[in-house]
């Protein structure tokens, strides 16, 4: 099928402002958006720049705004999106070139919630035991691939560059609700700052955007409740 | 031969200027911000209460009665009962504080500069508290025993 890709282009060496450029290409309905982007890059315009690595929805490199919604280009089929496809870099991030955005502020916020197991006891001889039920509690939030689709879809994140964003909160949830972890207080102290979890407006865009189907908004609300109940 | 690093483009690529608050320097996290927590909780509770209060207000004032029958005498009779006074006082308080809390979060979302934030929040609190006070004064000090206005 014939599709029109309208892509937001920005070359920091030439352009002052980002602008749209359209490309007519032939694509199979079962092609992914990533394939369509490759068609453009390989056969039409080699200067088109985007991130991708695994091409199978695992690495989280190619989150972008496809027809107004944040999606992984490698997980969306052309046939599902339609004949007119608008592709932009995610909102709320500084554009480096074309669809490539600066993820450093995002990872800085991610690191601030201490995304690693904190346990002050001596490690046991075998593993730290955890029941299947305890593991189940935070199962959803272990699935995050740090693509940034949730944070980049969040209106408070767009307007407020200081807001920690849903992705960091999801990863805090993964450890706060882990029975083996003892760092909850430290993480909650980070999240309860003025630009932390309470800048969330329960917009639910993050839940829609997550390519791993993590119930992001629910995880955020659980953290708010834990803060309330533990006071 | 040393590898040449290409010169950085001078246009558009703007580096973030300040180090952000999320950069950890090993310092202890700041104490828990209870104000944000309670304002979030208050939002939920006042929202549910407002559902009851505002709907009751709507039904009583606009469906059972309507603007044509509401006049000074109507208000006088209504506020003769301490029940309705308490009701109106609570409605005033909940609606104003709930709304102020909402505007406060909007300011936090959209106003980044410290000075403007302080300015906006100050205006909000001054205006909000002013309305709260004059509203409360009317409801509390209203004297239902005054005679009716003469009919025109
Ligand atoms: S390329 Fe790895 S997630 Fe899409």
Structure description:
The complex is a heterodimer of chains A (231) and B (152). Chain A is α+β, with helices and mostly antiparallel strands and 231 residues long. In chain A, the strands form 2 sheets. Chain A has a 5-stranded mixed beta sheet with strand order 2-1-5-3-4, with helices on one face. In chain A, strands 6-7 form a two-stranded antiparallel sheet. The longest helix of chain A is centred in the C-terminal third of the chain and has 14 residues. Chain A is elongated. Chain B has one domain: Fumarate reductase/succinate dehydrogenase, transmembrane subunit (3 helical TM bundles of succinate and fumarate reductases, Up-down Bundle), CATH 1.20.1300.10. Chain B contains 4 helices and no strands. The longest helix of chain B is centred in the first third of the chain and has 31 residues. About 11% of the residues of chain B have low confidence. The interface between A and B is medium-sized, with 36 and 27 residues. The site of FE2/S2 (inorganic) cluster has 12 residues of chain A, from loops.
Summarize the helix and strand pattern of chain A as letters.
Answer: EEHEEHEEEHHHHHHH
Percentage of residues assigned to helices of chain B: 55-70%
Number of helices of chain B: 4
Q: Count the E strands of chain B.
A: 0
* CATH architecture verdict of chain B: Up-down Bundle
**CATH fold title of chain B:** 3 helical TM bundles of succinate and fumarate reductases
Q: Give average pLDDT of chain A, whole number.
A: 95
> Residue ranges of chain B: pLDDT <50 for 5 or more in a row?
8-18, 25-29
Shape of chain A: elongated
Mean pLDDT of chain B: 83
pLDDT < 50 runs, ≥5 residues of chain A:
none
């Amino acid at each position: 099928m014939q599709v029109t890709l309208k892509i937001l282009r920005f070359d920091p060496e030439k352009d002052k402002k980002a602008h749209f450029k359209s490309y007519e290409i032939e694509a199979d309905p079962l092609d992914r958006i990533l394939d369509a982007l490759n068609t453009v890059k390989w056969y039409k315009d080699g200067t088109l720049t985007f991130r991708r690595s695994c091409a199978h929805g695992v690495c989280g490199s190619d989150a972008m705004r496809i027809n107004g919604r944040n999606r992984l280009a490698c997980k969306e089929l052309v046939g599902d999106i339609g004949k007119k496809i608008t592709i932009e870099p995610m909102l709320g991030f500084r554009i480096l070139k074309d669809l490539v955005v600066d993820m450093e502020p995002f990872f800085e916020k991610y690191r601030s919630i201490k995304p690693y197991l904190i346990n002050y006891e001596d490690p046991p001889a075998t593993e730290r035991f955890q029941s299947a039920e305890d593991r189940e509690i935070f199962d959803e939030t272990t699935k995050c691939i740090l693509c940034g689709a949730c944070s980049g879809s969040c209106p408070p994140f767009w307007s407020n560059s200081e807001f920690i964003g849903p992705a960091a909160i999801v990863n805090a949830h993964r450890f706060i609700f882990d029975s083996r972890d003892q760092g909850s207080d430290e993480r909650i102290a980070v999240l309860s700052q003025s630009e932390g979890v309470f800048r969330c407006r329960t917009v639910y865009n993050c839940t829609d955007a997550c390519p791993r189907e993590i119930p992001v908004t629910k995880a955020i609300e659980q953290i708010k409740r834990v803060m309330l109940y533990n006071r | 031969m040393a590898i040449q690093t290409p010169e950085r483009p001078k246009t558009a690529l703007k580096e973030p200027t300040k180090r952000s608050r999320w950069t950890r320097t090993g310092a202890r996290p700041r104490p828990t911000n209870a104000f944000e927590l309670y304002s979030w909780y208050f939002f939920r509770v006042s929202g549910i209460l407002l559902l009851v209060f505002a709907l009751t207000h709507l039904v009583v004032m606009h469906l059972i009665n309507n603007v044509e029958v509401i006049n000074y005498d109507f208000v006088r009779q209504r506020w003769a009962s301490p029940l309705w006074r308490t009701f109106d006082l609570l409605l005033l308080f909940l609606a104003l504080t709930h709304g102020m809390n909402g505007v406060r979060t909007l300011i936090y979302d959209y106003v980044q500069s410290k000075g403007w934030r302080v300015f906006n929040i100050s205006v909000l609190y001054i205006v909000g508290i002013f309305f709260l006070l004059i509203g409360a004064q009317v409801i509390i000090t209203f004297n239902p025993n005054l005679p009716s206005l003469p009919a025109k």
